[in-house]
Specification:
Length: 149
């Protein structure tokens, strides 16, 4: 059953729609490496956070360990990541990004940056300034929300 959107919810609904459209737009223009959304997300996390256990990567990406194992296997075959032994725990497997994975990530980031730049160029100067303020502020709020308490 669908909930009714009230007039007071309309600005929030408009913002949700705008964010969804922007995410789809960025995904459309981010094609280097032919990565799935899940692979792109996992690769980005490994680059931001560094080498990690496969189980921790699965937890961070909110997927089951078997699904992450399959994803890492596909990414490994593509040369984007490699599995390495955990010297602190011989039973654990670590996943790290390869030079190829880093290059694909950089290409995808450049593609997204270019697509975003083209969109921003279509805006008026006040709108550009609003985007420059609002997007980093939202990113900070997301980061603060996800930070461990």
């Amino acid at each position: 059953m669908h909930e009714r959107v009230t007039e007071t919810d309309a600005p929030v609904e408009d913002l949700i729609i705008a964010v969804e459209r922007m995410v789809r737009h960025m995904r459309h223009y981010s094609v280097a490496g032919g990565l799935s959304t899940a692979a792109s997300s996992a690769l980005g996390r490994l680059i931001r956070e560094g080498t990690c256990r496969l189980t921790d990567l699965a937890r961070s990406e909110a997927v089951s360990q078997p699904n992450m194992t399959q994803l890492v296997t596909r990414m490994e075959r593509a040369g984007l990541v490699r599995r390495v032994a955990d010297h602190n725990d011989g039973r654990a497997v670590l996943v790290e990004v390869t030079d190829t994975g880093l290059e694909v990530f950089r290409q995808r980031r450049a593609e997204r940056a270019h697509a975003l730049h083209l969109l921003i160029e279509e805006l008026s100067e006040p709108e550009r300034q609003a985007v420059r303020i609002a997007l980093p502020a939202l990113a900070r709020a997301i980061e603060d929300h996800q930070a461990p308490s």
